Amino acid sequence: MAERRMDADTPVFAIAVAAELAGMHPQTLRQYDRIGLVVPGRTSGGSRRYSTRNIEQLREVAQLSSEGMSLPAIARLLDLEDENRALRSRITQLEGALRAERESRPGVRVFAAGSSGVVPMPTGRRIRRSTEIVLWDPRGRN
Questions:
Q1: Is the pTM of this model over 0.70?
Q2: What is the pLDDT of residues 49-100, one digit of tens each?
Q3: Does residue 68 sit in the same domain as residue 120?
Q4: How far apart are alpha carbons 11 and 18 in whole angstroms?
Q5: Could you give the angle at the alpha carbon of 79 between the alpha carbons of 23 and 25, nearest 5°?
Q6: For the segment 106-130, what is each residue's pLDDT rounded down to a tens digit?
């Protein structure tokens, strides 16, 4: 059987346990699920399963609510936090891909536009100015 890796988004806690960990009544968690504020995972039978990230969100909702923030405002804040997390993950992924690409092409520092499109220019290759234009040199040398 394949081993599954647990992370902050892995749904593991039943509603009673999640409510206790968040310091809330289970009915409050059901209400938050209904309005889409904190939406847990579901088992194949339809039971709610909360992740550690869901527990953190519930605690944050309780804190913000006690400070007077409305539920729609809290929902928007949680959506923005999720979007921010996804964008940071994508940035990390793209940085890794860029690093791998740079490592796979040592010596390529300049890109040029020619009849075949944008092409990398290896170090030491002379650019034919009549047919190619230098677009970018990350080291500031053209």
A1: no
A2: 999 999 999 999 999 999 999 999 999 999 999 899 999 999 999 999 988 8
A3: no
A4: 10
A5: 20
A6: 765 666 666 677 777 666 666 666 6
Percent helix, strand and coil across the chain, each rounded to 5? 45, 15, 35
State whether 70 and 131 are in the same domain: no
CA-CA distances (angstroms) from residue 47 to 13, 26, 51, 66? 10, 13, 13, 28
Return the SS3 of 117: strand
Residue range of the domain that includes 128: 107-136
Residues with Cβ within 8 Å of residue 81, at least 6 apart in sequence: none
Question: What is the bridge-based pairing of β-strands 133-136 and 117-122?
Answer: unpaired
Q: Which of 112, 111, 109 is nearest to 131 (CA)?
A: 112
The CA-based diameter of the chain, rounded to the nearest angstrom, is 74
Q: In which residue are the tokens 């992924």 written? A: 93
Q: Tally the domains of the chain.
A: 2
d(CA 20, CA 31): 16
